[in-house]
Amino acid sequence: MAQAVVSTIVSLARAFELNTVAEGVETVEQLTVLEVLGCEQWQGYLHSPPVPVAQFEAMLVQAAPSAG
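Above: the chain's sequence. Below: its structure in token form.
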């Protein structure tokens, strides 16, 4: 049933030309289902647990492509 709800939400978002972001993704299996259903973005413990702002900013700097 949960997959049917997610599928419907993703379909509605596409119909209104909106992006979808899934929250609370904890397993590779959940991510795989979301990708199959067409969910564009996700967040959750599979990617990273919550972090303090300073740590998040450091992660952004580290992930940014270097200029040059």
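The chain is about 50% helix and 5% strand.
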